[in-house]
Amino acid sequence: GVGSNTIWGKMSPRNLLATTISDELRLSNNFQSKVIGISLKDRGAILPAGHSANAAYWYDDEAGKWITSTYYIKELPQWVKAVNSKNYPASIAGKPWETMLPIEKYVLSDADNNKYENSFIAGTLPIFPHTISSNSSTIFQEFKFTPFANTYIFDMASAAITNEDLGGREVTDLLAVSISATDYIGHSFGPNSIEIEDTYLRLDKDLEKFLITLDQKFGRNNYIVFLTADHGVAHVPAFLQEHHIPSGVYNEFGLADDINRAAETALGIKNVIKAVENNQVYLNMDSVNFKAKSLNDIQTFVINYLKTKDYIANVYKLDEIETTTLPALIKNRIINGYNARRCGDIGYITKPAYFGGGGTGTTHGSWNSYDAHIPLIWFGWNIKPGKTNDEVYMTDIAPTLAALLNIQAPNGTVGKVITAITH
């Protein structure tokens, strides 16, 4: 790590298999372009910036600072040290997060205090005002769950533009900014909370300030911005149930223990399951091979066991997904996400609005519209004004940027150019 001594600096893009649009930009001009990634999350900074980035900076929630790793550089630049020296996260301690508008104006949200929400501050109710404690052991973690963390990201992005002279030379540069506090807040409070509504009102102000900065520095038609998301979000099941909409939660981590107990009783094998994660079951091949049982018999047992769960709609072998009877839309999305070296052995599909978790907060990760429907907004240089209701995908962003910049698309591209904005 560079910038702190915690484990959170031990990060790099080594697990990323393909090039990114930022890699292709750098390749197109013999690495003259500058590429920088910024996010609270390491993955949010590292993956969009790609393999060849000049730098990626993320937030260390133990140290309360922007950090990077020796994959990129050996020492933080002076301008990053200067941002860190202001100690903005600590300055928020003891100051309340109150609603930007009078609380009665938040008509798209549920009541402020309800049973669906988590409080990110121990020992407090999930209601306004939220005041970060002065406890040095938790202050930097709690900071991530406030909209002020988004402001911090944009301040860092503006500092990068100025100090790295991004956009100031004859080549195109790329700044990848991933907004993370919306995710932390959304998971804790859910999409129907006043907290998330206030967060987006404040994010709108942050975006306004940032775009004005870009206009003033480069001119409105001299940069491209695209704004999107990595996923949507599910309503909190308890909220849906109160409104008579089918939904529920299950214990994803406990499911592995349940299968193991059932398999030991029925097959005499211990620890058949290594893990259950992301709607996938990972078999413990060491246990399976040790007992010399038929892999097919074990898979059939697990599949039949999962089919007994009321919240599961379908179960399948992941390596046989091509021949599995599933709706084409769902099957295609599973295939697109399948990697034989990284995925599990058995997959399952839950009923809509069912997911692994608890009674408060929410999550994401399914094929359903609430998780898969995200915004995609383009603005700036050579962007044709308009709107389309045609279905496009996040995988279309990279080839569209490549077309606009007249460079090669990333080497793992599966998307297509969105011609509605380029013609």
What does this structure look like?
This protein has 423 residues and is α/β, with parallel strands linked by helices. 35% of the residues lie in helices and 14% in strands. It has 16 helices and 14 strands. The protein has helices spanning 21-28, 42-49, 78-85, 88-91, 139-143, 148-163, 181-189, 194-218, 237-242, 252-267, 285-290, 295-307, 328-336, 369-372, 397-405, 419-422; strands at residues 35-39, 55-60, 65-67, 96-97, 130-131, 174-178, 224-228, 248-250, 273-277, 280-283, 312-317, 346-350, 354-356, 376-380. The strands form 5 sheets. Strands 3-2-1-6 form a 4-stranded mixed β-sheet, with helices on both faces. Strands 9-10-12-11 form a 4-stranded antiparallel β-sheet. A two-stranded antiparallel sheet has the order 4-5. Helix 6 (148-163) runs parallel beside helix 8 (194-218), helix 7 (181-189) runs antiparallel to helix 8 and helix 10 packs across helix 12 (295-307). The longest helix has 25 residues, at 194-218. The relative contact order is 0.11.
